[in-house]
Amino acid sequence: MDPQRRAQLVEQYLACTAEVDDALSGITDAELDVRVGEEWTVREIVHHLGDSEMRSALRLRQLMAEDNPVIVGYDEGHYARVLFYDRPIAASLAAFRGARESTGELLVRLSDDQWARAGTHTEDGAYGVEPWLETYAAHGHDHAEQIRRTRAGIA
User: Fold this and answer.
1) CA 119, 79, 38 angle in degrees (round to 5)?
2) pTM
3) What is the SS3 assignment for 33?
4) pLDDT digits (tens), the chain, 155 positions
C-alpha cells in the first residue's frame, strides 16, 4: 500500500467516531429498538461497534507487539445473542470511542516496518497491519450508514 493511500485510510479511521455520533444524533429510545427486516436494531449496532472496536484494538496491538501473532476470528451474531445487546448503549458507545481514539494515536505513529508487520488470521490466513486498517477504516462508517438506514426504515 502506498503512503498516500495509507494516510487516507488513517484519516477515514480517525473520522469514524464523529460519523457514528452524527448518525446517532437526536435518536430516541424508541428508535434504538426498531428492527427493519432482518437487520440489527440501532441498539444492537452500537453494542456491536463497542465489541468489535475493542477486539480490533487488541488485534492491532497483537500485530504490532507480537511476532507472528494468531488473530482469532469470532462470531459477531453469537456475541449479539449472548452479550445482552438489549442493555443501554452508553458504555458500549464509550468503549467504541475510547478504543478507536487510543488506536488512532498509535496509527499516526507507526513506522514503515510496523506497517509491514503481520500474523495469521484464523479465518482469513495471512493478515497484517495494512489489511487490518483497510477493514477497520470503513467498518464504523459502514455501520453509521446502517444506523441511518434503520432510522429511515430502509432495510
Assistant:
1) 115
2) 0.95
3) coil
4) 899 999 999 999 999 999 999 999 999 999 999 999 999 999 999 999 999 999 999 999 999 999 999 999 999 999 999 999 999 999 999 999 999 999 999 999 999 999 999 999 999 999 999 999 999 999 999 999 999 999 998 86
Determine the CATH number of domain 3-152: 1.20.120.450
Query: Which residue, 68, 71, 47, is CA-closest to 58?
Result: 71
Cα angle 105, 110, 114; round to 5:
135
Task: For the beta carbon of residue 74, count every other beta carbon within 10 angstroms.
Answer: 12
Residue with cell 458507545: 93
Grid cell listed for 14:
480517525
Q: Cell 463497542: give the residue.
A: 50
For residue 136, which of 24, 64, 75, 56 has the smallest C-alpha distance? 56
Q: Which residue from 134, 109, 108 is spatially nearest to 121, judged by alpha carbons?
A: 134
